Amino acid sequence: MASIPSPAIEATVRFATEADVPTILALIHELAAYENASSSVLATESSLLNTLSFPSSPASKTGYARTLLIYPPSPDQNICAGLALYFHNYSTWRAAPGIYLEDLFVRPQFRGRGYGKRLLGELALETKRVG
């Protein structure tokens, strides 16, 4: 496997919080524009708040999907470079839990720095954690 470039190693990856919903929605719109499907986006901040899972969510209010966000090292550290949005699934044939990656998106100005590979690496760690 190819090594991850230095900017990606120094980047911060974290789970999205409720405060990140506007950023997540912006990234969803950017991904849809990239795929020439902007008119297909029905998500709103409200619908994302009601359907995503966040670290601070009480056990009684778990959403369907989780989001990892990646932030570059300074000077761009306040700009989200991309996301990996995923949800848990289950394989009946293997009788094992898994993870399904719904969207992996890195903003064009941050591509080529290894951020996509870094997000996939973090998702692989999460996959190992769930079994």
In short:
By secondary structure, the protein is of the alpha+beta class.
Q: Total strand count, please?
A: 4
The averaged pLDDT comes out at 91
Q: How does the overall form come out from the CA principal axes?
A: globular
Helix content: 25-40%
Rg to the nearest angstrom? 15 Å
> Describe the biggest sheet?
4 strands, antiparallel
Specify the number of helices. 4
Can you tell me the residue ranges where pLDDT is under 50 for at least 5 consecutive residues? none
Structural class: alpha+beta
User: What percentage of amino acids are in beta strands?
Assistant: 15-25%
Strand order of the largest sheet: 1-2-3-4
Write the H/E string, N to C. Answer: HEHHEEEH
Distance between the termini: 22 Å
Task: Explain this structure.
The chain is an alpha+beta fold. It is built from four helices and four strands, in the order αβααβββα. The chain is globular, with a radius of gyration of 15 Å. The model has no long low-confidence stretch (mean pLDDT 91).
